[in-house]
Design the sequence.
């Protein structure tokens, strides 16, 4: 007996959603790791604000990682659980040595831009499969990420004015 037997979702269409969720999981794992690095390595102007913000952001990413993995399981897939596996498929690159607030924020903004594109594609796939739960989950991510982008752009603009 499978979970999908009770969800009234087409297994073939849901397989595409699971594949896209696997990709998103890998990207979020790299994003999480990068945020941890920014949290540890940030120096200079904006340190106190960004140190706390990066911690909040990686906690949020960790929560989303768990949610994505559990959604993969719910839809009958098996989430990757090895970092070597994530690195093979992730479209986000590992970074390190970003101690500049400007460089770290720019990287996070670029990552969110990528995640938003992928999440919108995944929402379309989920809608094609009548998987409203996955679409809703990702719509919530978009709402949070768009607000975070607005805040990071505002922060970045303010910090550039004080150079």
Sequence:
């Amino acid at each position: 007996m499978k979970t999908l037997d009770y969800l009234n979702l087409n297994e073939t269409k849901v397989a595409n959603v699971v594949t896209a969720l696997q990709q998103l999981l890998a990207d979020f794992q790299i994003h999480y790791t990068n945020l941890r690095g920014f949290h540890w390595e940030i120096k200079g102007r904006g340190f106190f604000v960004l140190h706390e913000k990066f911690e909040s952001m990686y906690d949020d990413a960790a929560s989303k990682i768990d949610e994505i993995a559990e959604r993969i399981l719910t839809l009958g897939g098996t989430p990757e659980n090895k970092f070597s596996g994530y690195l093979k498929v992730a479209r986000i690159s590992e970074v390190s040595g970003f101690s500049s607030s400007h460089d770290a924020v720019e990287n996070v903004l670029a990552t969110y831009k990528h995640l938003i594109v992928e999440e919108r594609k995944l929402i379309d796939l989920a809608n094609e499969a009548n998987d409203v739960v996955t679409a809703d989950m990702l719509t919530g991510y978009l709402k949070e990420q768009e607000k975070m982008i607005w805040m990071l752009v505002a922060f970045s603009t303010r910090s550039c004015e004080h150079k």
Remarks:
- Residues 11-41 form the longest helix (31 residues).
- The chain is about 80% helix and 0% strand.
